[in-house]
Specification:
Blueprint: E1 2-5, H1 12-27, E2 34-40, H2 43-58, E3 62-68, H3 71-82, E4 89-92, H4 97-110, E5 114-118, H5 123-126, H6 130-138, E6 142-147, H7 152-157, E7 161-164, H8 173-180, H9 194-210, E8 218-221, H10 227-235, E9 239-243, H11 261-274, E10 292-295, H12 308-313, E11 319-321, H13 340-344, H14 349-357, E12 361-366, H15 394-409, E13 415-420, E14 438-441, H16 446-450, E15 455-458, H17 462-470, E16 475-477, H18 484-494, E17 497-499, H19 503-506, H20 509-520, H21 525-538, H22 542-552
Parallel strand pairs: 1-4, 2-3, 5-6, 5-8, 6-7, 8-9, 9-10, 10-11, 12-13, 12-15, 13-14, 15-16, 16-17
Length: 560
């Protein structure tokens, strides 16, 4: 049993006790917990008990009031509960505790907290954050969300307050000249631009955050961007990073960019203005929190720090797997660059359902949103060199995969293929006509389609992998760059996937057909492995436990 004095702990001991009670109740919903309040039968005791009762009501905790008249009565009660194994903790309310309790009541009535999100403007990074917003709102937590305007609609749909955050393309001419001049044109894109852009927008971002009411209590940010970490330190509030990939070990080292004069100049300005060395515990694309870092994956798929650089610099950085964070179809983004009209287009579900009823197998093909947007007409370059795709553009890669699929399945009468090809008008330019058993769509409601799919041919982005795993769908992974080759290796190790790393050399119609056919066998080991992973995901705790860890850290006892 824990015994604390409210006055000495300035009231926070009481909140800790209440939070432990709430977590215990959440983990054991059939357990009935009641708080017994011992209140001195004098003015101070009555005032403190009244305010405490309000606080317990706000926190939805059942309680009983026991008046006591003499110190001997209090001693007898304490002795009694000390021997009661069902008593988890007890807090003594000293004279004068009323002031502290009144402050806690005021804070609780105003809000259960105010969490501010600072996120990368990318579908794969925003989507996993949305169920966190929904869960926070359900707990009465105020949420403000900083991201580019293209995500405003989906952010506001969760109930969060959207605020604009600039991208490199949004800088004024004056800002671009000051902060980006000297970077090669190709380097002006992420990640080289991350630090210069942060230096440019931090003054206005800080001013805007300081105007928020109530004051932010926590910053949840994307570790690819430094500004979330910086504003948290400036405001002297906790920070939590949200890794939407499977861990630091999948991040390609960008440490060499630290020596770029433009990056150095921007980092020095941040240090001079904010007093923060952003490279103290991380580097470009790896601005982790020293408080806690939430990894949206299963413990089994976690990629810990791997390089000697990471092992040294991230030695004291805490990471915790909380399980995949999957938004419902209604509150997620299918494609950030698709128009509302495109998003409203419906799949021919009747054709898909009739195919399944006729014993046909449904194969879903998607190479993600990055290939069909920012890299569409641009060569992957050094980003994909380690996977042999540096000479490919997004368009060339998508068409390479589509052509292999056309040849692999075009004459398979027992297969229906549904492929998401993105919003680009020239996606099919130069390709042969699609076979009759193919349905080509610009965008699709991925979760709904995966529920009707037997195999998923994917680029291997973390969100796509987790969504397939959740629905026990085996995967054929054709990775491009970044974390995708690492994700492919991890899934292959589980037995739930086949990978075509170095696809320009390994992916052929024959090899693709063979991989899919293995997965379609009645007793497929791939399907069994995917089912086991799905069960592990179901046991990982869900969104509620992830939010418990984000808000309360190790006290929430979240296990990946």
């Amino acid at each position: 049993m824990v015994l604390r004095n409210v006055r000495e702990d300035n009231g926070r001991a009481l909140l800790e006790m209440l939070e432990h009670l709430r977590l215990r109740r959440a983990n054991a919903p059939n357990t009935h917990i009641t708080v017994r309040v011992l209140a001195a039968a004098d003015h101070d005791g009555i005032c403190a008990a009244h305010i405490l009762s309000q606080l317990l009501d706000i926190r939805d905790v059942k309680h009983t009031l026991q008046p006591v008249w003499e110190n001997s009565d209090i001693a007898q009660h304490i002795k009694h509960v000390e021997n009661d194994t069902e008593v988890l903790s007890m807090v003594l309310l000293n004279c004068g505790a009323s002031t502290d309790l009144e402050k806690l009541v005021s804070e609780s009535k105003m809000s259960e907290g105010h969490v501010v999100f600072v996120m990368m403007p990318s579908t794969g990074h925003v989507n996993p954050s949305l169920p966190i917003v929904v869960e926070l709102k359900s707990r009465g937590v105020m949420v403000t969300y900083y991201v580019h305007e293209q995500f405003r609609e989906v952010v506001e749909a969760t109930g969060a307050n959207w605020r604009q955050m600039q991208r490199p393309h949004d800088l004024t001419d004056e800002q671009a000249t000051k902060y980006l001049h000297g970077l090669e044109k190709t380097a002006c894109l992420f990640p080289a631009s991350a630090v210069p852009v942060a230096a440019a927008i931090l003054p206005s971002l800080l001013t805007d955050m300081e105007s928020l009411h109530p004051r932010p209590s926590l910053i949840l940010y994307d570790p690819l961007l430094p500004q979330g970490l910086v504003v948290a330190k400036q405001l002297h509030i906790p920070s939590v990073s949200l890794l939407t990939f499977t861990g630091p070990g999948v991040v390609s080292s960008q440490a060499s960019l630290e020596t770029n004069p433009v990056v150095q100049r921007a980092a020095q300005e941040i240090k001079e203005v904010c007093g923060i060395d952003i490279f103290a515990h991380g580097t470009i694309g790896e601005f982790y929190s020293m408080d806690r870092n939430t990894v949206a994956t299963l413990e089994r798929l976690f990629a810990p720090p791997s390089s000697s650089f990471q092992t040294e610099r991230l030695a004291k950085v805490p990471f915790r797997c909380v399980g995949p964070l999957i938004a419902s179809e209604e509150s997620r983004i299918s494609h950030a660059w698709a128009s509302a009209e495109q998003l409203d287009k419906k799949l021919p579900w009747k054709i898909i359902d009739e195919a399944r009823q006729g014993s046909k197998k449904v194969i879903y093909v998607s190479m993600g949103s990055v290939a069909t947007s920012s890299f569409w007409a641009r060569k992957f370059g050094p980003t994909a060199e380690s996977n042999g795709l540096q000479a490919f553009s997004g368009k060339e890669f998508l068409q390479f995969v589509l052509k292999a699929a056309f040849e692999a399945f075009g004459h398979e009468e027992d297969i229906l293929v549904v492929a998401a090809i993105g919003p680009q008008l020239d996606a099919l330019e130069g390709l042969p006509p699609a076979p009759e058993n193919f349905i080509l769509q610009e965008v699709v409601p991925q979760l709904q389609l995966l529920q009707k799919s037997d195999v998923f041919i994917t680029h291997g982005g973390a969100n796509s992998l987790h969504e397939a795993i959740a629905l026990a769908v085996p995967l054929v992974i054709v990775p491009m760059f970044h974390d995708q080759p690492f994700n492919a290796d991890a899934l292959v190790d589980t037995g739930a996937a086949v990978s075509f790393k170095f696809p320009s050399e390994t992916l052929s119609p024959t090899a693709l057909r063979s991989a899919v056919r293995q997965m379609l066998e009645p007793e497929s080991s791939f399907r069994l492995a995917a089912g086991e992973l799905s069960q592990q995901m179901a046991r990982s705790g869900g969104i509620a436990r992830a939010v418990d860890f984000i808000l309360f850290g190790d006290a929430a006892d979240v296990h990946g």
